[in-house]
Amino acid sequence: MIQIAICDDEKEILDEVSGYIKNYAENKNNLDIEVFRFDSARTLISTLEDGKSFDIFVLDVYIGDEMGTELADCIRKNGIESPIIFATTSLEHAPQSYETGTLRYLIKPINPGKFYEAMGVALAQARKMSEHFLKFKTENGVASVNANHIMYSEAHDHYQYMRKDDGEEIKVRMTVTELFTILSKYGGFVRIGSAYIVNLRHVKNVTPTNVCLYSNINIQIPRGKFTEIKNTFWNFQCEGQED
Fold it and tell me: For 135-239, CATH number?
C-alpha cells in the first residue's frame, strides 16, 4: 500500500487533492493508496516524530502561519527521503523548495494533468526507494534509513553503530549477524572481521591492510582475508552498483 500525506490549511484543497488521488488510483486498476489529511504543519510533524512515515507528501507552501518549506526541511531532518510535491499559489518559494529535493512545484489552481504526471513520477520514485528503505527501533524511537546511505556499521557490546554518509549515527541493539542478515538482502554489504559491516558502494579501494572508504575512514582487514575481500569488492564494481 502507498501512503500519501496531504498538508494544507484549506479544506477545499484537501478535498480536491484527495479526489485527484482517488481518481488516479482508480485509473491505475484501483491502485492501493491510502490518504492521510493534515490541516497544519504542527500536526504532521507530531505524527512524524511519533515514528510514522509516508511514501509521498503533497504540501502547500503557506499553511496558515506556517511555511511548507520549513515543514519539508523538517521531513528531511527526520531522515525521510520520500518524494515531496508542492501545490501553492506563488512561485516565490520554488528555489527554496528545491533545496529539500522537491519533486514537483505545482501552481494553484492545480491542473489535473500536471498533478497526475507528478503522481506517476512520485510513485515510481517511492517504489524504488522502498526497495532499499529500512526501519530500525532505537532508544529514541524509530529510525528510517535508505540502505544505500549506510557507509558501515561497528559493533560495541550488544549494539551496532551504523554510520551514514551524512554523518548521522544510528544505534541499534542487535548482533552483527542479525544486522548483516538484514543488510545483505540489499546487496553490496560485506562483513569485515567480527565487528564491522561495510557498504561497498562507499569503498574507494582495498589495500592489503585496510578497506578505504571515500569518507577517509579506514577499516582494518583481518589477517588472511585480503584476497577474499578484494575479490568481493572488485566483483561488485564490475557487476555494476545497484541504484
Answer: 2.40.50.1020
Cβ atoms of 106 and 115 within 8 Å: the answer is yes
- Cell numbers for 113: 494533468
CATH number for the segment(s) 2-130: 3.40.50.2300
Sequence-separated (6 or more) residues with CB below 8 Å from residue 64:
9, 40, 41
The predicted-structure confidence for 141-184, as pLDDT tens digits, reads as follows: 888 888 888 999 999 999 999 999 888 899 999 999 999 999 99
> Closest Cα to residue 56, out of 107, 112, 7?
7
The C-alpha cell that represents 79 in the structure block = 531522515
Q: Which residues of the chain have pLDDT under 70?
A: 79, 90-101, 239-243
- H helix intervals, the chain: 11-27, 41-49, 68-77, 94-98, 112-130, 176-183, 226-239
Residue 7 grid cell: 498538508
Q: Outline which parts of the chain fall under CATH 3.40.50.2300.
A: 2-130
No. of H helices and E strands in the chain?
7, 17
